[in-house]
Design goal:
The complex is a heterodimer. By secondary structure, chain A is mostly helical. Chain A is built from three helices and no strands. Chain A has one domain: Helix Hairpins (Orthogonal Bundle). The termini of chain A are far apart. Chain B folds into two domains: about 550 residues, no CATH class; about 70 residues, no CATH class. A three-stranded mixed beta sheet of chain B has the order 1-2-3. In chain B, α1 packs antiparallel against α4 and α2 runs antiparallel to α3. Classes of the chains: A mainly alpha, B mainly alpha.
Amino acid sequence: MVPVQYYLALAGILFAIGAVGVALRRNVIVMFMSIELMLNAANLAFVAIARGLHSMDGQVIVFFVMTVAAAEAAVGLAIILASFRNRTTLDAAQLSSLKW
Amino acid sequence: MVNTALLRWIVLMPLFGVLFHTFVAPRLSRQSSSLVGPGVVGVAFALALVAFWRLWALEEGGALVDRMFSWIAVGHVQVVAGLRFDALSAVMTLIVTGVGFLIHVYSTGYMEHDEDSVRFFLYLNLFMLAMLLLVLGDSILLFFVGWEGVGLCSYLLIGFWYEKNENADAGKKAFIVNRIGDAGFLLGLMLLFWSLGAKGVWTLDFAEFRAHADAISPAIATAVGLLLFVGATGKSAQIPLYVWLPDAMAGPTPVSALIHAATMVTAGAYMIARMSFLYVLSPTALHVVAAIGVTTALFAASIGLVQNDIKKVLAYSTVSQLGYMFLAMGVGAFSIGIFHLMTHAFFKGLLFLGAGSVIHGMGGEQDIRKMGGLRAKMPITFWTFAVACCAISGVPLFSGFFSKDVILFEAYNSEYGHPALWAIGAFAALLTAFYMFRLLFLTFFGECRADHHTAEHVHESPPAMTVPLAVLAVLSIVGGYVGLPEGWLWGDRFSEFLAPVLPLHGHEQHSAGLETLLMTVSILAAAAGIALAYVFYVRSPEIPGGLTARLRGLYDALLNKYWVDELYGATVVGGTFWLANALWRFVDATLIDGTVNGVGKVIQLQSSLWRRVQTGNVQHYALTFLGGVILVIGYFLLH
């Protein structure tokens, strides 16, 4: 059996990739995908720890996270679509008019 | 002490008039107001007569009271809105409603052609309401309501023809000068209330004040007396606050007669009589009152010598006569002061109404240099005016003779008196006789100096105006016979009637020889004044011109009223303007606005720095957020 630490390490790596992707990539879609990656890294950590501790709590939370992720995908994609129609760009650096 | 609801009806009558003129009369014809306006005052006068008759039937020192309702009840202080009809109030109420009624009737003629006569009668009725509260109120608080009410009406009526700026200005001047006096009055009232309260007597009632007068220390009595007198100088136009009264002549002439001669301006004298129990505790306050009174009498009389506006002469004569009343108060002869107040109400009311009749007949002309020879054209006005002139000048057997003569006698003979007071008063009497007969001769004798058109249209006034003149003329003659000098016929019944309320103070042993001597001097003074006026203005009219040319400086000083208005304008008014300007520019604009705007500026400045953090780029936020998370996690890992 694979030890829990391996899963946690993998989750950490995935999360880091996602975080760096959000912070550095310019394309909004890619940033969006990176957010999904971070969410699923958290999911993986929950499931692994639930398995290791023989508890159902972590697995239940994963369902909630998946629900939130689905809702976020729907709303987020709609926003990106609307923003693209208005500004014809997906570059996050150029979508910076929300300031004083 | 008899309880009766009669008194409240005296006060309510003018209130009905006010309500009628506010809500009903504007919808009716203007004639309705000339019926109701005098009507309600006439009923009030009739009720006052009934009350007087009932008071007469009581034993000496009795009073009718009407406790209407509990007005203020705070802690120890219980104030009942109550009316009190004692001998002093009775005299005042009869003067106010009686003379007031005559002047209301006169006004129906005088204001006949004025578009705004409804508003005029509204204000007049309102004035009667306030004045009756003033003289009938049994607590100093109700008195003060009336005191302020008459001030308001005075302001409204001086500025009655408000389209002309100077009229509105005169109204404001009267109001503001009176506020200065009222500040003193209020301070005196508070000091009295507080100092009695400290002794356990919390009251605002005149009778209670009087009953506990022995609890007032002499120092407090002096302070309160002087502060209240400041209020009296404002209301009754004494030095230094007299300046508003001559300007108040901007109002319609019946107003000058009613408010600025016969009734309201005597409120200060009434107040001092009402508080006489306090003044007798403080000889200092009495001396100040007497000194100010006699100075005002002389000062105003001297200005009156050279004025050319018929109403201005009468205005200064009013100031001067009020000075005599205060002189009487100041030498402890309170009832004599009230006696002069009454005779003055008759003859000065008559003089103003006569002047109004002249102005009416001359089509609005007020300059006596453009009058003359009106004797034949306005016989009733002339004869009544002449009677009033005799009365005010102290011609023997007219009312003013009796009242002024006793004042001068008391000024000499009273414990508080002084020969100097008498001498100044007698000299002012000479001046009075001179300027009144100057006015009479210039107006009614000689050739008519008006332009041809005006002279042709001079006419006697309608009966609504001449009948009140005749009634007041009769009163100006017989009004003095209620208070004859001691030893004459029935003696001084007036003072006897008032004695329970206003005992004579400082009255020395009566000496018939001295009285005869002083009386002879006053008669000679009056005769000299009249003779001088006759020589100057009838026999040889060239003398005054030569005299003014020789005494240029003195004449200019008198004509310009000693430049007192200019002096006040430069010091008090200018000072107030300077201070207000400084407060505005420095305190308001610099200090307060500076602080408020400064706080805003500082916040704006530092915000403009901080706002650069908010770039609008979502990735910067994400990085910041990430950095924050790392810091928090790192903190927990390291601890």
